[in-house]
Amino acid sequence: MLKHELRKNYKELRKGLTPEKISDLSILLANHVLEIPIWDFFYFHIFLSISEHKEVDTLPLITLLQGRDKNVVIPKVSSKNSLEHFLLTDNTTFKKNKWNIPEPVDGIPIPEEKIEVVFLPLLAFDQSGNRVGYGKGFYDTFLRKCNPKTLKIGLSFFEAETAIKDVHENDIPLDYCISPEKVYKF
């Protein structure tokens, strides 16, 4: 399928998820993270969920990472339509931006090259590790600034598509994707 078709299909599939189902699946995904060899790393970048879009609730995963004394880094959309990154602390305050994404108001900036693991939002992914996001390109731009060894992990309520037909040369593939059924390694 093409990206625009996948976006439409998976947005519709998400509409059918109840808050209880989202909570249950999000906890299941967080537990699957324990199966991935990432625990020697220290800087973990994670998105904050847009509840109105019925995204994966990342709070269970954030709790897991903090419980293991990991540095959790949260993105914020800058005025240049790119991402800035801030360390999540007890003093971090949040405000929703124009897309209803909760963002840190300010905080301790973390440079991209320090980030070792990135958890990515997505609508769909395929068996080769290609992902379909919302189409704005924020994450592909951000990932190009990271160390090439930075691990990229998608979080999905649904299983892999066979193939995304219109993958672009600037699309950066995932290293892993976690679904309710399994952990995909690419």
TrEMBL record:
EC number: 6.3.3.2
Signal sequence extent: none
Cofactor needs: Mg(2+)
Record-listed ATP binding positions: 3-7, 131-139
UniProt GO BP: folic acid-containing compound biosynthetic process; tetrahydrofolate interconversion
InterPro entries per UniProt: FTHF_cligase (IPR002698), FTHF_cligase-like_sf (IPR024185), NagB/RpiA_transferase-like (IPR037171)
Keywords, sorted A to Z: ATP-binding, Ligase, Magnesium, Metal-binding, Nucleotide-binding
Reaction(s) the record says it catalyses: (6S)-5-formyl-5,6,7,8-tetrahydrofolate + ATP = (6R)-5,10-methenyltetrahydrofolate + ADP + phosphate
Record-level Gene Ontology MF annotations: 5-formyltetrahydrofolate cyclo-ligase activity; ATP binding; metal ion binding
Binding site for substrate: 50, 55
UniProt similarity note: Belongs to the 5-formyltetrahydrofolate cyclo-ligase family.
PANTHER family, sorted: ATPASE INHIBITOR/5-FORMYLTETRAHYDROFOLATE CYCLO-LIGASE, CHROMOSOME UNDETERMINED SCAFFOLD_24, WHOLE GENOME SHOTGUN SEQUENCE
Protein name listed in UniProt: 5-formyltetrahydrofolate cyclo-ligase
